[in-house]
């Protein structure tokens, strides 16, 4: 299979190619070919990096005659490698969207009623400042939290710290990647980060378990996956659904949902019992091997078969393939790993398997990332908060290294045992109504706030509940914080405005400066504008804003090796200084030091486990109103197995509704009848079914999975919100 991989196949799995650009050209210019060469004097080329997902691919924004033209990747960027994904090429749709928020708004009716009045920026800032000062006086500044997503949230982070609160949370930590990071920190002493430190292009064997690569279309990862396929890598995909990655695999293991840890433990059993592990690596760099060996004796492939429905011979065969290709075998750490409440332990099982394969710091495994050193802008020390979100949860989630958005949400609901519940939220660039499960709890929390500020580009569900709405201009209209991410090169990328902001929208750095003035916090923001802020930081890093405006991306010299030498002893940032197969830290906190498989509940009769994923055309719900990308996909479908569809007399393309175990009913959604999913599960893409009527292209188009997620299984180790314990049935 891998040897037959072609460029056409790569386009299919990546979403690359001319589609996004052609659609963009038609929409913006009314012409069929955006690549027709215009006079050079009419074209302006501006450095940018994408805000359509967290990978922040660097590229160039082209305007022609002062209007949007196209977006391309930056050839020197180790994220985009010169090409943007479908979402990235559709970025101009964020700029041209007619439904954009256009001016500051202050609520006049009850929360959620969508009654607002237009105000000036000064009025909006005055309102916010008065509320924040009152909260600080009556409850303390620590009772204000920031929920944020995106690189430009850093300016609001600085503001909140200057105000006196450290309660800053990204919903993605608790509802997407958090268990993965904590699992690797517990095992290796450091996270895998984002973009992940995976050396897929050099892998000889790739194992995907808990990742939708090819559908999440993160450019660098998809390219590396394509490189691996072209080089003949063996691919093993574990998924209840025949995903895009599964379609490119040598082995698809359609596992029973909820049993992934059983399979991982059985793989470990085979690799240890058959002595297929990297003996020298394990001896030099791990602790707890003998305890692990004893622990997994009972987790045989025969036992795992009864749990996973994967046959013992398949388990043994795939384990041997991994070992044969080690250390260039990579068990991908996954994304969106919050499933059943035991997620840190499940991901840790995969981390232990990687350790046995000896792939840490090895070619084809996990490389050692490089990162540019860019000093911050000088400011006085931030005031030290007297309390944090942890105080609302004494003795819980002590191993969480970041604040939990769900914890902030629950701590915003007053109770007799809380000395202070949160009184104010600033929500930047994240639709909290959809990024946190258990919507009823979110609404209850919001109704108890004294202040809710929403900073966004579009009228999302959260803006309808805000007291103040601040319209941010799109990423193509503003300077942003520098992109300083880790990877195989130490790089810095710049985003600068390609066009002036439309309407009365403003960049976040400007908002923060003005709010700091109102709050008397000017000393923390002494730069006169963002260009001065960026230039000083870049000068300290050995370059300048002028240089970066010209180049877009610069690579700083760094000869630190990204791989360890063979049999080199490695120092890990753990208590033992080694990879901890047996975790003393977990044991000290009352958790299993080695992962223990625990069976999860099965769907009731006539119900099916709800599985959720993502579309290659959209960045979840952030782009489902995008006038370019909606031409590629404007609603989601529910995948239903052919046998189940026959039993229920469901037809392909038919609209139905889904009802979950708690009686919550979704909006209508089209049926996709397919053999590509197990009969005990259904699958839908997240991000559709918006309920804010001001999103004219996305309003009630498809179904919203987050409304159906009413049962949440909390990860006891780090507080992640497991969402795969929900079941649905069909209403025709």
Notes on the structure:
With 732 residues, this protein is an alpha/beta fold. The protein contains 24 helices and 26 strands. Helix 7 packs across helix 15 (343-357) and helix 10 (260-273) runs antiparallel to helix 13 (301-308). The model is unreliable at 1-36 (pLDDT under 50).
- Please outline the major beta sheet: 7 strands, mixed
Give the N-terminus to C-terminus distance in angstroms: 41 Å
Could you say which structural class the secondary elements and strand pairing correspond to? alpha/beta
Portion of residues in beta strands equals: 15-25%
Which strand order spans the largest sheet, edge to edge or round the barrel? 5-4-15-14-13-6-7
**What global shape is seen?**
globular
Structurally, how many domains make up the residues?
3
CATH architecture of the largest domain: 3-Layer(aba) Sandwich
What is the strand tally? 26
CATH superfamily of the largest domain: Dimethylsulfoxide Reductase, domain 2
State the helicity in percent bands: 25-40%
> Class of the largest domain, according to the CATH hierarchy?
Alpha Beta
Q: Identify the quaternary structure here.
A: single chain
Number of helices: 24
Low-pLDDT stretches: 1-36
For this structure, the CATH topology of the largest domain is: Dimethylsulfoxide Reductase, domain 2
What is the radius of gyration? 25 Å
Can you give the mean pLDDT?
91
């Amino acid at each position: 299979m891998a040897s037959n991989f072609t460029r056409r196949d790569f386009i299919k799995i990546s979403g690359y190619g001319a589609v996004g650009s052609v659609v963009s050209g038609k929409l913006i210019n009314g012409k069929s070919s955006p690549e027709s060469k215009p006079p050079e004097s009419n074209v302006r080329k501006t450095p940018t990096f994408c805000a359509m997902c967290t990978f922040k691919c660097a590229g160039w924004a082209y305007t022609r005659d002062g209007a949007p033209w196209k977006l391309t990747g930056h050839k020197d960027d180790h994220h985009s490698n010169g090409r943007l994904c479908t979402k990235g090429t559709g970025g101009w749709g964020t700029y041209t969207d007619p439904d954009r928020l256009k001016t500051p708004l202050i609520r006049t009716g009850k929360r959620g009623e969508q009654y607002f009045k237009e105000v000036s920026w000064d009025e909006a800032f005055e309102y916010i400042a008065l509320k924040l000062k009152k909260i600080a006086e009556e409850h303390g500044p620590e009772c204000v939290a920031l929920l944020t997503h995106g690189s430009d949230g850093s300016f609001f982070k600085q503001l909140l710290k200057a105000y006196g609160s450290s309660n800053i949370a990204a919903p993605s930590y608790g509802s997407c990647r958090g268990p993965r990071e904590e699992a690797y920190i517990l095992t290796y002493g450091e996270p895998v980060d984002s973009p992940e430190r995976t050396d897929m292009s050099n892998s000889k064997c790739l194992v995907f378990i808990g990742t939708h690569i090819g559908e999440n279309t993160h450019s660098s990862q998809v390219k590396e996956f394509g490189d691996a396929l072209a080089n003949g890598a063996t691919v093993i995909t574990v998924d209840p659904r025949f995903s895009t990655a599964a379609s490119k695999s040598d082995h698809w293991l359609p596992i029973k949902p909820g049993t992934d840890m059983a399979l991982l433990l059985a793989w470990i059993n085979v690799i240890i019992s058959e002595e297929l592990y990297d003996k020298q690596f394990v001896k030099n760099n791990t602790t707890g091997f003998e305890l692990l060996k004893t622990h997994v004796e009972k987790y045989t492939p025969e036992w795992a078969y009864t749990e996973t429905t994967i046959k013992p011979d398949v388990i043994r065969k795939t384990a041997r393939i991994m070992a044969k290709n080690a250390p260039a075998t990579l068990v991908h750490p996954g994304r969106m790993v919050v499933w059943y409440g035991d997620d840190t332990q499940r991901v840790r099982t995969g981390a232990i398997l990687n350790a046995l394969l000896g792939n840490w710091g090895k070619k084809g495994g996990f490389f050692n990332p490089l990162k540019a050193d860019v000093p911050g802008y000088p400011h006085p020390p931030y005031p030290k908060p007297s309390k944090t979100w942890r105080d609302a949860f004494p003795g819980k989630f002590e191993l969480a290294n970041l604040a939990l958005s769900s914890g902030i949400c629950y701590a915003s609901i007053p109770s007799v045992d809380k000395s202070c519940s949160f009184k104010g939220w600033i929500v930047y660039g994240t639709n909290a109504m959809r990024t946190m499960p258990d919507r009823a709890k979110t609404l209850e929390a919001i109704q108890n706030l004294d202040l809710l500020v929403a900073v966004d580009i579009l009228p999302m569900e959260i803006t309808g509940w805000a007291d103040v709405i601040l319209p941010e201009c799109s990423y193509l209209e503003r300077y942003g914080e520098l992109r300083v991410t880790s990877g195989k090169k130490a790089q810095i990328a710049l985003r600068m405005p390609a066009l002036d902001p439309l309407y009365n929208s403003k960049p976040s750095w400007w908002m923060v400066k003005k709010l700091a003035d109102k709050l008397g916090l000017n000393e923390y923001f002494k730069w006169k504008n963002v260009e001065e802020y960026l230039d000083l930081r870049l000068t300290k890093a050995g370059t300048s804003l002028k240089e970066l405006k010209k180049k877009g991306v610069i690579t700083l010299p760094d000869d630190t090796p990204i791989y360890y030498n063979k049999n080199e002893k490695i120092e890990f940032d753990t208590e033992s200084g080694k990879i901890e197969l047996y975790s003393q830290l977990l044991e000290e906190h009352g958790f299993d030091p080695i992962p223990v498989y625990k069976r999860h509940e099965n769907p009731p009769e006539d119900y099916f486990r709800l599985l959720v994923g993502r579309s290659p055309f959209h960045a979840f719900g952030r782009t489902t109103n995008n006038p370019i990308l909606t031409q590629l996909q404007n609603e989601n479908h529910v995948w239903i197995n052919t046998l189940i569809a026959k039993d229920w007399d469901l037809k392909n393309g038919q609209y139905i509704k889904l009802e979950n175990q708690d009686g919550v009913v979704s909006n209508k959604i089209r049926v996709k009848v397919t053999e590509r999913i197990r009969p005990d599960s259904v699958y839908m893409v997240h991000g559709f079914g918006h309920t804010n009527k001001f999103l004219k292209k996305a309003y009630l188009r498809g179904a919203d999975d987050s409304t159906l997620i009413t049962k949440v299984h909390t990860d006891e180790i780090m507080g992640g919100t497991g969402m795969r314990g929900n079941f649905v049935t069909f209403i025709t």
